[in-house]
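Dear support,

I submitted the protein below through the web form. The confirmation email said the job was done, but the results page showed an empty box. After a refresh the structure appeared. I'm attaching both so you can tell me whether what I see now is the final result or a partial one.
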Amino acid sequence: MSYSILSPYIIPPEVKTLKRGNIGDGFILFSIKKLLEPQICECLLSTRRPLSSEEIARINATKALILAGANQLNDNFTMLPGMDPQGIKRIKIPIIPFGIGINGIRKFNRKMSDITKDILKIIHEKIQFSSWRCPATVAYLNEHIPELSARFLMTGCPVQYDTNLLNHIPFYSPDQKIIVTITERDVFYEREFSTIKYISEKYMNSEKILSLHQEIDTPSFPVLLRRFVKGQFNKIRKPSALHGYAESRGFRIYRPTSVEDCQAFYRTCDMHVGSRLHAHLFFLSQAKKSFLTYVDDRCVGFSEAFAFPLCDYRNLDQYLGYDFEIYRTHALSSFEVMKIFLSYVKTQILEAR
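What the results page shows now:
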């Protein structure tokens, strides 16, 4: 009855990157395991490197391989680095995409490559349904592989669904303890600086915490110098400078050490404002108010599907009156599709003899 999972949350030590593990990817992983209970994950591996023969054997000893969430789907999606159709066929059990989303950066989602089409077709030879997180993702799939359109279910993200939201607990209104999340990539400083400044002034008497979902190591001096020479002045700001500014405005810095600790801490908080999608979805799942600032188009499909605003950091006041029951109505509707998907995975794959 056990299954395997491939997740981008797992970063192998041999993979060199400036990025650390994204706690949002961990939220997805944790939620998938919770939704699939009482079945258990016996083999957890990373999407960030190829599989060894021994790892493929471990996967094949379980009932299914779950591809866990995040915005991985792009024109050249191959599930794992260097994977090809022949490599996929070495995995003998069903491979099940679960809550995966479109990359969202337009230049990466223009025309699906033939190898990506072939891989997705091979995956769907052994499964009836797959789970995708927003209508933009499903539309992209339907455009490029229309013959599989009946297989692609828009389930939303696994992080969206928890008992407070599903059981109609009224949305929480206090603002004594506020989490602000930031996204420290590309052109980030003005957006996050403005959000921190706004919260510090709007909620002067509240406890304020800056939560780092994916802390980025400060770029080296040569990298900063190259950006300066190229005139990329908006990319030479250091994340550490933003953290220092937040502390000067009365914030304390929170660096999550695990998914469980982060979620437990968030449950003690009243409200979220910031640019991390999965902090946003988690707070909403707890029936707590959350306001997501716009970073790029990765969140547009979510916003349209679930009718929550993508906030302009320059005018956050305009969003504070949003009726969160609108979001709940849309989330409950997508949860009905999620239940169909979960029933299929559990009864026809994981529990099948």
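Response: this is the final, complete result; the empty box was a page-load delay. DSSP finds 13 helices and twelve strands in the chain.
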